[in-house]
Each structure stands twice: as structure tokens, then as C-alpha cells.
Amino acid sequence: MNVSKSLIFLCAVFVFGVFMPAEEAFGLSNTFQGKVFEQKDQKPRDSVLKVAVGDQAPDFELPNLSGTTTSLSEFRGKNVVISFVPAAWTPVCSDQWPGYNILEDLFVEFNAVLVGITVDNIPSLYAWTREMGGLWFPVLSDFWPHGETADRYGVLRSDGTAERAIFIIDGEGIIRYIDVHDINRRPPLETIVDQLKRMTSPDNAGRND
Amino acid sequence: MKRMRTSTVAVFLFALLVFYSRAGALDAAPPVGSQFPDVAITVPDSKEHRNYLGLKRGDSFKLFQVATDTVIVEVLSMYCPFCQAEAPAVNTLYSMIEGDPELRGKVKIIGIAAGNTKLERDMFVDKFDIPFPVFADGDFLFHKALGEVRTPYFFGVRIADGAATVFYSNLGAFDDPASFLSLILERSRSKNTEVSP
Prior knowledge:
The structure holds two protein chains of two kinds. Helix content of chain A is about 30%, strand content about 15%. About 10% of the residues of chain A have low confidence. Chain A is of the alpha/beta class. Chain A has a five-stranded mixed β-sheet. By secondary structure, chain B is α/β, with parallel strands linked by helices. Chain B has a single domain, classed as 3-Layer(aba) Sandwich (Glutaredoxin), CATH 3.40.30. Chain B contains six helices and seven strands, in the order αβαββαβαβαββα. Chain B is globular, with a radius of gyration of 19 Å. In chain B, about 35% of the residues are buried. About 10% of the residues of chain B have low confidence. The interface between A and B is large, with 36 and 43 residues.
């Protein structure tokens, strides 16, 4: 390495070192310190949607933590917010559903139910949600056939995890909102609340956004 | 050849220095004895909260401008189960301070909602009926300045002579408000700021 090449490399190291994106502390709750698998940033999105706003939402029937199954169709008449998260025991996911855990009143206000789905198996989901102190909303396992529901919605990533995605479905089973979020970031609550407000507003109840 | 080796080694060492300094920037809360980060905080819209902090209407303020002797700063998040569980205890702490004529006005509490939008902050505040000001830090600016601490995290900060000096810095819930308040009062009176919690 000659001196000029060294200088170029030195500058590159400095610029990258100083301005590289810091590891964001989205998984910052002390609840999970030392218990989650720390990950570097991943490709923000790694799938292609198979549904669109205005489509009939694909129905599913998946195992829940009560030992039975839950289907989308059983919520007909209510607005349904589906929260896909990539995997149990990962940083951002472990700091997403606990926030929703204090918002039951908000969902009730909008005649909505929240459904959490991951591709993990039931024992893993049981242990993980217990660590959160339990959750008021159903948590479903899309483990086997692996990620089948996530794939039908087009949010199954190439590594077998799901995207961090929000689907909001109206009482008729029509998809009204989709946010396939950057997997490394937690979706702001505003995205859900604003959409539910629009859907429950008398002026906009029939519109797809 | 020798010059080439020397430059390569220098580059390698510099690279290590840069990366280790970056790594060290994470999880490095302001230590006891240091100045609390000089971050501009948005003045609350609520008149009640402005009065509590002794602030006039304006854009922003810094912690040393709070009209008090001691500020307890809680770094929290709506998404943090421990913060949710701790919220009633912090409210009790606030009530104990406000209910004590000797402490009222001299010890104040603020919350920094790390990574929370205003709506997320509002949801947390409403859910737990939090009486003290909680500031939304949606873009993690404050949180980064605080060393990206995990939550809940408590700082005790002494306000004097235009400075805000950290005298207590600790991760985790405190459980018993009375014991915590005693600890804060004891530490705030201590001149030895080098003692770690």
C-alpha cells in the first residue's frame, strides 16, 4: 500500500466510521436486555406483496396461544389490524407488541381487533409473550406450513421470517391499508390510528385508501 | 518497504480507533459528576407543565433552566413493559414530592419518551395518568445524547449556577418510591459527585 492509497483508505475509514448509521436502539426496553438475539440492520424489505388495497384479504386459520385456532373470518364485522413481525426474541419485535399492549381501549374505540402473527412455533411465542407480561390480543403462529399465511399476503422474506407489516382489513374483509415497513424500524402508531380514524369516520366509511 | 508497513499499521490502528470510539458512544450514559447533555427540549404546550417547570412560553429550553434544585429525569418508552409497570410508582414519587412542602418546587420530574412519537407519548401519559411533563423524542435525538440507555433509566440532576450536573445515573426500575426519594435526596446533598450509584 503506497502513501496515496493509504490516505484514500484512511479517509474512507474515517468517513464511514464517523458517519456510518449507528445501531439504533429500537429494542431499548430493559425487559429484554440479554435475552434477545442482537441483529445488525437487515435488508429493509425482502418480499413482493401478493395483495393490494381493495382486495379481499386472504383468510387464514392459525394456531393461537390458547391451544385452539383463530381465523380472520371470525372477526367479520370488525376492523382487523394484522401485525406481522419478523421473529420472536429479536430487538425491534420485542419492543413493538408491548406498546400495543396498553392500547386495548383504543382498538375497542375503533371497533377493531389486533392480531399478531409471526412464523415462530407456539412454544417460542408462548415464552416470548410471557416475557412481555402477556398480551391482550391473539398471537398466531404461522410456523407450519412455514410462513404460508405470510406468503399468501406477500410478506414472507427469503430467509423464512416475515416482514414487519401492518394490514388493516375492514368488517367486510377488504384490505384497506398496507404498510410493509422497514424491517429495522418500528412503525409509528400514527399509521394505524390515522387509518382506523378514516375507516370509522362517517364520511369515509366506504372508501378504500 | 519499511515505510509501506508503517503506513499500513498506522491506517489499521486508526481504523480500530474510529470503530472503538463509535462503539464506545453506545450505551455510555452521562456519568455521575458530568454535565447533563445540553439538548434543547421543546417547551410544553400545557400551561400547567410550563408552570411546573418554571418556564415561559417559547420554543425550547435546556434542563439547567428548570426552576428547581433537582430534576429526576426518567428515560422511558411506551413500548417498554418495565416502564409501563413502573409508571404507577413514578406517579407515587411525584405525589410524595408535591405533597411535601419541604420538597415541592425543589425536586421535579420529567420524562423523556425515547423513540416515541407525540401520539405514542400521549398514549402512555393518558394510560397511566402521568402528571409530570413527558417529552416525545421520536427521532432519538435526546436518547442518543444520553448514551442510548435502555429503559427505564433514571438520572438525578442538580441544577445550580446555570449548570445541570448528574449526581445519579442508574438503569432499571426503582420499585419503592420512598426509598428512591431518600436516595435521591441523599445523593443530591452529597458534594462527592464521584460516587457511582
